[in-house]
UniProtKB/TrEMBL annotation:
This is CopG protein. It comes from Thalassobaculum fulvum. Residues 1-28 form the signal peptide. Keywords: Signal. InterPro entries: DUF411 (IPR007332).
């Protein structure tokens, strides 16, 4: 009986070690989107905000939505300058994401980890994700609160 218990214990230990050995590389190899949850504060009636949430989810991000009557207090807490405000505010990986920022730029932000407060697509450009206007109107993604000042992070 003690030999069987010893064998079972040894087998269980090997299985546990194998699980740990195989799970660590899988977690490390996962994209930032799968590792970071995006928290979004938005109006419950805003269709374009819901469109941006769907955009982020389809890009592989896990998204937790907070429907609130007034997003302004969250913008103030997150340090969003007035000139970069939009309709919703999100937090991910210690950064603020304001407005209709493309998922690819959020992924890049999480990979590069610049010293900054976050990203913004100021206003509500018709062609930004979630707006989906397809007008050809150009817009910029701004990195704000960065060392050396705010700067254009991407152009579309």
């Amino acid at each position: 009986m003690t030999i069987r218990r010893s064998l079972r214990s040894a087998a269980a230990g090997l299985l546990a070690l194998g699980a740990v050995a195989f799970s660590v590389p899988l977690v490390a190899a996962m994209p930032a989107a799968a590792q970071e949850e995006v928290e979004v504060w938005k109006s419950p009636s805003c269709g374009c905000c819901a469109g941006w949430v769907r955009h982020m989810q389809s890009a592989g991000f896990s998204v937790k939505v907070h429907d609130v009557d007034d997003v302004q207090p969250m913008k103030e807490m997150a340090g969003v300058p007035d000139q970069y405000a939009s309709c919703h505010t999100a937090r991910v990986g210690g950064y603020t994401v304001e407005g209709h920022v493309p998922a690819s730029d959020v992924r890049r932000l999480l990979a590069e980890r610049p010293k900054a407060r976050g990203l913004s697509v100021p206003g509500m450009p018709a062609d930004a994700p979630g707006m989906d206007g397809r007008t050809g109107e150009p817009y910029a993604v701004v990195l704000f609160g960065a060392e050396g000042g705010d700067k254009v992070y991407a152009r579309y």
